[in-house]
Structures are given as C-alpha cells and as structure tokens.
Amino acid sequence: MKENLEILVEAVQGDRKKVFARYGQKPSKALGERTIRWILRILGGTTVGITVLIIYILVSDAYGFFQEVSFIDFITGTRWEPFGYDKKFGVLPLLSGTLMIAFGASAVAIPFGLGTAIYLTQYAPAWFREIATPVVEILGGIPTVVYGYFALVTVTPILKMLFGEDTVQVFNAMSASIVVGISILPMVSSLSSDSLRVVPVSIKNAGYALGMSRFHVVTKIIIPAAISGIIASFILAFARAVGETMAVTLAAGATPTTTWDYLQGIQTMTAFIVQISLGDASAGSIEYFTRYAIGLTLFVLTFGFNFLATRIVRRFREVYQ
C-alpha cells in the first residue's frame, strides 16, 4: 500500500517519466496497441453509422409520405383515419394519446421513483438497501408485453370497481399509464440514486453541524445539490414513456382521439406503427409510408427530450473539489 501511494505521489508531483515509461511520447506502434485502436474505431464508427442509417431510412421514406400529404395538415390535423376512401392524416390524435401516456406514467414513476431513491440512499440500512435495490431494478427488466396483459387482467378490473363498469372501457389510457409508470420507475430511481450518492459527505455533515435534522439536510441540501441529475432522470423517463410500445398497444386500445379522458381508449404513435406493421398496408402505398412519418416524428420527440436532459445536466451540474 505504501509503495502504491509513493508511486501515485511521484506520478502527480514528480517526474512522470519515472512512473509512465511512454509519458509525453507518441502512441505506441506495437501490433497489439494498433489492433486495439482499430477495434475501438470500428466499434465507434459502427455505432455512429447505424444511427445515421436509421435517420436516413426514416427521412427518405417519410419524404415519400410528405409528397402526398401536406406537412402542415399532418402536424395540425385533428383526425387520423389512414384507411378507407376519405383518408385523414392529422397526427394530433396520435400525439395526444402518446403525451397522455407519458404524462400519466410520469405521474406514477416520478414520485415513487424519487421517493425510493431518497429512502434507499439516505434512510435505509445497508442490508435492506442491498436487497431492495435489485428488486426495484427487476421491474425494468420485465417484458412490456407482460405489463400490457397485467393492465388488462388486473389494473382495468380494479379501475372498473372504482369508477364503474360503464365508465371505464376495457382498453383505457389510465391502466396503460399505470403499468408504463411502473416499468419506468427503476430508471427514475436508479438515476436519481446515482445523483444523490455523489453529493459529498462533507456537505451533509456541514448541515448536521448547524443543527439541521436529517429531513432538512435531505430536502434543503442533498436534493438541491443533486437536482440536475434528478431532473435529467425525469426527462429521460418521460422520453422512455413516449417510446413505449407493447404495453400501450395491449392496454390503451386503437382509437385515435384528442379527448383527454384517461378512462377511455386511445392510440399512441407506437401503437399505430404496430398496427400498420401487421400487413394491412401494401408496400409503396400511402398507408405504408405513414409508419415512417410517425417514426420520424417519434424520433424527433425522443431526441428533443434526450437533448434537453443533456443540456440540463451540463447547465446545472455541481462540480465538487
């Protein structure tokens, strides 16, 4: 241990060439080093290339859709009826359903996820934390199709008991929001926990030294210090809910509407992509290209939320010495 400490001090304060033989020199040209560099370049280039290819396919095929449908009509229309003789391609009903699910799921995931993160990092004993953390993370690993059937056979009957058989439809937005909220809860909990853990102990001890209770230390010091990561977890969870597919396809129904009634059936953008991908549309038809127009819209939404989360983290991130 003492030798390692001396080596570290020498590397930081002394002559680094004594510790690092190649310090200040050009990268090694040894075969092993070159092989590793090329492998990493290929992997990084492959990731970027796949992303660019996805964007290219979405844009090129969505262009075929917008050649026949006005972009203004697409983003402002209030009727989505892509099948039949008199077709309507207003995306607002699908966007409305998507945002309903995202907001409803966030209303479930954010308070429970943040509360779980605060309890596990600030209040729970170590033995309980080691047991509870994997249990919470398991929720994020359950297939969403299971959540969909759970909504149909468990959540919806409970809602019918609470609000009445005639009030709650079999396929409804509330049951879908609840199960999607449960599925994204581990994301809020995990990311918020990471942000809360990196707050220096010295800052917390300063609060205790001033006579603050644990509750006030958590609410007045720790949470404000970790607020950038917490808000980022909220936004990323919201974006995750926007892109949810199977749970909302099974639980929310296939009724595009702009009515914000959580007890009625709706249709999200992802659910429509599933519907149109079942073989009802012939290749090259306007119905076929709708999936790419919706996919591009969904991509822009999720990219915007992810970009916003990144900007918030960079803008409000606290850097501690």
What tags apply to this protein structure?
single chain; 321 residues; mainly alpha; 13 helices
Shape descriptor reads: globular
Widest sheet, order of strands: 1-2
Measure the end-to-end span.
Answer: 24 Å
Give the total of beta strands. Answer: 2
CATH topology: MetI-like fold
What's the architecture, going by CATH?
Orthogonal Bundle
Averaging pLDDT over every residue, what do you get? Answer: 84
Q: What string, H for helix and E for strand, traces the elements in order?
A: HHHEEHHHHHHHHHH
| Share of helical residues | over 70%
Provide a descriptive summary of the structure in words.
With 321 residues, this protein is mostly helical. It has a single domain (81-316), classed as MetI-like fold (Orthogonal Bundle). The protein contains 13 helices and two strands. The protein has helices at residues 2-13, 31-66, 71-76, 92-123, 126-138, 144-163, 173-197, 201-209, 214-225, 227-242, 246-251, 269-276, 286-316, and strands at 80-81, 88-89. Strands 1-2 form a two-stranded antiparallel ribbon. Strand 1 and strand 2 (88-89) form a beta hairpin. Helix 4 crosses helix 7. The longest helix is centred in the N-terminal third of the chain and has 36 residues, at 31-66. The two termini are 24 Å apart.
What's this entry about, in short?
It is built from 13 helices and two strands. It has 321 residues and is mainly alpha-helical. The two termini are 24 Å apart.
